[in-house]
C-alpha cells in the first residue's frame, strides 16, 4: 500500500481532484435545477409527483447502462459523466427538498403573508430556510451516492478514482482497488463535514437575521 502511494501519489491526487470536481459540478447543477423545479411546481402537486416518478425511474437505471446510453448523445468524457450524475442526484434532492418544504408549519407561511410577502419572498425567506435540515440531509445523501456512482464514470473515460478501481480489476491487483475505495470514502467524509459546517453557518445566519427582524 505504502509503496504504491509513493510510486503513484501525484497521479492519485490528480484523480481525487478530478473526482471531486466531477461530483461537485454535478451536485451544484442538480441543486439549482431542483430549487427551480420546486419553485415552479410547488403549487402543482400532481406535476411534482410526476417529476419525482420520472426521476425515480431514471435513478433505477443501472449506472453502467446509463453511462453507456449517454455516449451516442454526448460522447465519451467528463461531460457525459456529469450529465448522468445530475440525473441520479436529482431524484434524491427533489424528494428530500419537497418533503422538507411541505412540512414547514403553515402558521409561518400565514404570518409571512400577513406581513405582505410575495410568493417568491415566502419561498426564499421562509420555506427554504425552515427546510434547511431536510435540504442538507438530501444533499449529503446525494453526495454519498454520487461519489460512489462517479467511480463508474471511468468506463467512459471521465477520469476520477474509478481509474484506480478498474486498474486493479484489469491487472488483478488488490492495492489499486483498496486505494480507490479509501480515497472515495475520504472524499465523501470531507464533503459531508464541509456540508455540515455550511449548514450550521446558514442556519445560524438565518436565525440571527430573524432575531434582527423581530
Key attributes of the depicted protein:
single chain, 214 residues, mainly alpha, elongated, 85% helix, MetI-like fold
CATH overall fold name:
MetI-like fold
Q: Which H/E pattern describes the elements?
A: HHHHHHHHH
CATH H-tier superfamily: MetI-like
Helix fraction, binned, reads over 70%
Q: What's the total count of β strands?
A: 0
List the domain count as a whole number: 1
What's the mean pLDDT score? 86
Report what the structure shows:
With 214 residues, the chain is an all-alpha fold. It has one domain (2-213): MetI-like (MetI-like fold, Orthogonal Bundle). 85% of the residues lie in helices and 0% in strands. It has helices at 2-41, 45-59, 63-74, 78-102, 106-114, 119-130, 132-149, 162-171, 174-213. Helix 1 packs across helix 4 (78-102) and helix 1 (2-41) crosses helix 9 (174-213). The relative contact order is 0.13.
